[in-house]
Design brief:
The protein has 145 residues and is α+β, with helices and mostly antiparallel strands. Helix content is 23%, strand content 27%. It has a 6-stranded mixed beta sheet with strand order 5-4-3-2-1-6, covered by helices on one side. A hairpin with a 4-residue loop joins β2 and β3. The longest helix has 14 residues. The radius of gyration is 15 Å and the shape is globular. It starts with 6 loop residues before the first helix and ends with a strand.
């Protein structure tokens, strides 16, 4: 069962979505530029992918703080879908990433060309962005990523 999803709620999610093998759980955060998360879990509740990001609308910037995924789920377009979900919050904003793994060094430039967002690890997010605040509220299941 995914973090912060009760056993009964997880059972209900699976019951209402019998054909789904992946569940996208969005953890919004209410305060300003606090971190948000999108977790992808299998039917057993095991997290196999996560994206953590922050957006500051005041400074018009965004930060992709973390993206990770099990190797079996890589190279299927899932990472692209996750990042595109985050980018919808700040179209036209200055987007940066945290340090990039060797895979990320190939992934982010390709996605930057596709989306027009910089997605570089060379810049800095504004002082309002809080990637430390990770006390995520109750998640909601999303389908339109």
């Amino acid at each position: 069962m995914p973090e912060q999803v009760g056993e009964l709620r997880w059972w209900w999610i699976k019951l209402r979505n019998p054909r789904d093998d992946r569940f996208f759980l969005y953890y919004p955060n209410g305060g300003g530029a606090d971190a948000k998360a999108l977790r992808v879990c299998d039917r057993g509740g095991i997290e196999h992918a996560i994206l953590i990001w922050s957006v500051c609308h005041e400074c018009q910037c965004g930060l992709i703080a973390k993206i990770s995924m099990i190797p079996e789920w890589q190279r299927q377009g899932l990472g692209r879908r996750l990042v595109r979900w985050a980018l919808r919050e700040g179209p036209g904003y200055a987007w940066v990433t945290s340090s990039q793994s060797p895979d990320g060094q190939q992934f982010f430039p390709a996605l930057a060309r596709e989306t027009g967002a910089a997605l570089t690890n060379k810049g800095e997010a504004c002082a309002h962005v809080d990637v430390v605040n990770r006390s995520f509220p109750r998640p909601r299941l999303v389908r339109d990523i």
